[in-house]
Amino acid sequence: MRSFSQRTQCLLARAQRDPAAFEAFYFEYGRRVLQFFARRVIDPEAAFDLTSETFAKALEHRDQFRGKTAEEEQGWLFAIARSELSRFWRRGSVEKSAIAKLGIELPDLSDAEIERIEQLAGLSEVTPRLEAAMRSLPSDQRDAVQRRVVDDITYADLAASLGVSEDVARARVSRGLRALARELRGPDAKVGTTA
User: Fold this and answer.
1) Do 113 and 49 contact (CB within 8 A), yes or no?
2) What is the number of other CB atoms lying within 10 angstroms of the CB of residue 89?
């Protein structure tokens, strides 16, 4: 398959006229979108669900795409992906609205598929860095991130368990996640990064 930079035709524009062309669009970007999510949520099943929701929304809204180039279609798709990731962090789950609207049924992932997603995303390289980054967080942020993200409790329950307001609980999780993101990007990425 030709790489995105060598491709001159816009697959998404073609998919507006020919729904079958959406398959080529998916095969062009599916792996990159899956890696994008897997490296950020460190959860293969959530990454798979987020990828599915992103492509379902792209399919549902493909007529809104106005670009003409491969670069523009990639930007449009990753804008959807970033929006889905933001929604995931705010709600703590994948919304799956476009998937349901289109009547798409998601299969359960097998252990082999989960391992493959972890391999594609390079999670075995990220996990030790993530664990070290978690250890470097102040204890209040580490505890808040652990309970909210890993244990998957609501902000209301988190606030109650910490004896703080929901706003304080959200702030601790947010600061902790930003610190983790900076740490995982590496020392070169810290320059010019805002908290």
Assistant:
1) no
2) 15
Residue in 147, 149, 141 with CA at minimum distance from that of residue 171 = 141
Structural domains present in the chain: 11-115 (1.10.1740.10), 122-190 (1.10.10.10)
> Nearest 5°: CA angle at 123, between 119 and 128?
140
Cα-Cα end-to-end distance for the chain:
40
State the burial class of residue 115 (Cβ atoms within 10 Å of its Cβ: 0-12, 13-18, 19+).
Answer: middle
- Using one digit for the tens of pLDDT, what is the confidence trace for 147-169? 887 777 888 888 999 999 989 98
pTM above 0.85, yes or no: no
**HSE-CB for 153 with a 13 A CA cutoff:** 19
Look up residue 9 and give its DSSP letter.
S
144 and 179 Cβ atoms separated by less than 8 Å? no
Q: Residue 104 has which token pair?
A: 């798409």
C-alpha to C-alpha distance for 12 and 21, rounded to whole angstroms: 8
Nearby residues of 151 by Cβ (< 8 Å), 6 or more positions away? none
